[in-house]
Design a protein that fits this description.
Blueprint lengths: L1 H8 E3 L1 H8 L3 H10 L4 E4 L2 E5 H17 L1
Antiparallel strand pairs: 1-3, 2-3
Helix pairs in contact: 2-3
Length: 67
């Protein structure tokens, strides 16, 4: 079961990440290169986890509220 959850959490490739975030692929490429955006590569493809992106967004929100 845990492996199924891991697969469901994985976003494989920039198009999947972009669709999840409601952004363009170019925006995701930019974030992956210039921010602390939580991505990694598998077989040369940019990947991310939904849970990591949600945690990253929560950190940004917390910083904005306390700043």
């Amino acid at each position: 079961m845990e492996q199924d959850n891991d697969r469901a959490d994985l976003l494989y490739g920039v198009p999947e990440i972009a669709a999840f975030m409601g952004r363009t692929p170019n925006t995701i490429y930019y974030l992956a290169r210039s921010e602390d955006f939580p991505t990694f590569k598998i077989g040369g493809k940019v990947c991310a986890r939904r849970s990591s992106i949600n945690a990253w967004l929560a950190q940004l929100e917390n910083r904005a509220r306390s700043g």
